[in-house]
Amino acid sequence: MRAASDPAPRPARARATAGSELEGFSLLWPGGSGKRAPHSLAPTTCADLDLDEVLRAIAGRDRRREAAARAVLTATGTDAETIAYRQGVLRDLLDHPELAARLGAILPLLAELGQPPQDGAADDWGVLALTRRATDLALYTRAVGELRAALLEARPRAEALRRLEGLLAAETASADFQAVLAELPSLREQLRQGECITVAINLTPSWEPESASIVGIGPRNAGKGTLIGRLWPGAPDQTRGVTPLRRTGPVDALRGDNVLFRDLRSLLETAAGAALSAISRLADLGAAKLCHLESEIAFYLGAANLCRRVQAAGLPLCWPELAPAAARETRIDATYNLALALRLLRSAADGRHRLVPSDVLFDGGQGRVWILTGPNRGGKTTFLRAVGLAHVLCGAGLPVAGTKAVLSPADQVLTHFLGPETAAAGEGRLDEEAERLAAVFAEATPHSLILLNEVLAGTNQLEAIALATEAVQGLRLLGARCVYATHLHDLALAADRINAAVAEADSPVASLVAGVRPPGVPDDGPAYWIGEGAQPEPEPDDGEPHATFRVAPGPPQGRSFASAIARAHGITFAQIRARLRSRGIGGDTA
User: Does residue 3 contact residue 152 with C-beta atoms inside 8 Å?
Assistant: First the structure.
């Protein structure tokens, strides 16, 4: 019986095209490396979701790999087949740490294989091109062998990895590959014979250099040799040079105008003629077939490291079950903002940090358009980011933050968060917000995810509620999954009227609320703890309500608890008066 990791038998004609299949193969796209997602996250959305924190966790300090990871995470509209394809690769790397370690050891080889010629070297078939080509072929055969050996030993289950192993097997069995293995040793030996050039310099009677000639070409001089002994029989030690071997920088000997260098080039190309003829037959074998896998493997290894790091901290991750796109469904149990968790992990040495989870639900029964209200600094923005990052990670084939998840892939993730005013001259904040909101409706489809944070705040409350009500009616008609975080509590109270006004739509509008616990009531709800050290000091019983940071369906509470924040910053009138009096301002200071 054929082993699970053995490649399926291929007909002879298919073997002839194995190289081109390998060049077009991708570990990220089941349709090949030429396939791309139809949409990508806007830079503003990346900033709104704090995506850079996740990218840094995947890529470390490597800017090149961060750019490659960004290309994967910002690609939206990936279908269920692509997501499952990627999940399979990452599952294998998490289940087989030894495979991840071996692929990590191969990465530098793949990176070197993809390096372009330095100093603008010409792509001719001269001696320089010959040495570069021989080096590329040696790297390529080694990379193919080591990569296939790693896959054979791990026996992965992922479709992508099994197919890659099959393509590598077909490549190693090809006539070109076998020819390289047979001819490369002798070719490299021929090149080694030209690694050391011996030059004789004629001097004038006053010992000034007068002329020079090339008198020998041979293997690299390692500090010992017999040439001096032949030219100077009376030398005290005929096995060594007259002077020590000196290290020098690179010399552009074959490109200079010096006549001696031109003679040298002619000699080398004549000597390399046979090797050039042999290597020219192997023009179809080389780095282009394999080097593109370096960034893809690096992405998966970085994602695996991220998963291990998060789970080692006691935070749950789960593989989302994929629901049909038409269902427009999202269910995540006990999710949290992964970017915030990563930031807290970086500061874990400062003590313990509490991370509060919430459930997420989008469906056609309880709610697909949610109006989220709650106190200032109560976790609304954190919740929006948690929802957005979960869909971004799912689309990239990664597990999501939470204990259980069912997601319909989102074709786009569109955001509009309140930010610094950047309106054009002659326009105000409301103009800018209206323009961005109009752009959301111009791009979104029923399969999109829309996250709105404090939009339409650039006018008075009565007008804002009127404008927001019409926008939410449009969101219900659109049918996309949406969370609209706002301080307009009356907007949440109007959910039933909005549903009745757009009765033909199948996306109910409902109210979410960021919780608040009454004064003196301890918070004993579920939480994740990050870091070590003493428990944080309990919140003082100051007679004020405190945010629980948990988001759940429920009626709006009608208060934003801004007064508690004002007191915390010392800007109530009583606090301002006391401060001014302490400075001798504002009346009696006795």
Answer: no
Q: Residue 322: which of 407, 256, 265 has the closest Cα?
A: 407
% of the chain with per-residue pLDDT over 90: 48
Neighbours of 347 (CB within 10 A): 11
Nearest to 473 by CA among 448, 493, 500, 433: 500
Beta strand 449-453 with 413-417 is parallel
**Residue in 430, 432, 417 with CA at minimum distance from that of residue 458:** 430
DSSP state of 115: P
Where do you find CATH 3.40.50.300 in the chain?
Answer: 313-558
Q: Is the overall model pTM greater than 0.85, yes or no?
A: no
Contact yes or no for 480/444 (Cβ under 8 A): yes
pLDDT at 1: 34
Q: Give dist(CA 385, CA 451) in Å, integer.
A: 9
The Cα 84–Cα 323 span in angstroms is 12
Other Cβ atoms less than 10 A from the Cβ of 448: the count is: 23
Spatial distance between the Cα atoms of 304 and 458, rounded to a whole number of angstroms: 43
- Which helix or strand (DSSP H or E) is residue 364 part of? none
Q: What is the H or E stretch that residue 369 is in?
A: strand 369-373
3-state secondary structure of 372: strand
Widest CA span in the chain: 110
Residues facing residue 369 across a β-bridge = 482, 509
Q: Which amino acid is it at 420?
A: P
Q: Report yes or no: 360 and 387 within 8 Å, Cβ to Cβ.
A: yes
- Give the amino acid at 516: V
Tens digit of pLDDT for each residue in 238-290?
444 555 656 656 666 555 566 776 776 676 666 555 555 555 555 556 667 78
Instruction: Report how far residue 566's alpha carbon sits from residue 365's, in angstroms, rounded to the nearest whole number.
Output: 39
Pairing assessment for the beta strands 509-517 and 546-553 based on DSSP bridges: antiparallel
3-state secondary structure 118-187: HHHCCCCCCHHHHHHHHHHHHHHHHHHHHHHHHHHHHCCCCHHHHHHHHHHHHHHHCHHHHHHHHHHHHH
* Calpha distance 336→358 (Å, rounded): 7
Architecture of domain 313-558: 3-Layer(aba) Sandwich (3.40)
